[in-house]
Amino acid sequence: MKFHLEVECDETALDETTYRELSRILRYWAGNLHHYELAPGMTAKVYDSAYRETGSWTISH
Questions:
Q1: What whole-number distance in Å separates Cα of residue 61 and Cα of residue 4?
Q2: Are strands 2-7 and 43-47 parallel, antiparallel or unpaired?
Q3: What pTM was computed for the model?
Q4: What is the pLDDT of residues 19-53, one digit of tens each?
Q5: What's the rounded Cα separation, in Å, for the pair 61 and 7?
């Protein structure tokens, strides 16, 4: 099984903002994975702190 997380970062954001957003995304999704069946084909959208879609995660073989 592979877990793939893809997040698009705002190239105009300050480095501090980027680190903070990535940290929040990782904490949030790590804490919520127990709500999902970790099986190939599973996918979910990832949102930033302003609730804008910023990426997704997927499970594959």
A1: 11
A2: unpaired
A3: 0.80
A4: 999 999 999 988 988 999 889 999 999 998 889 99
A5: 20
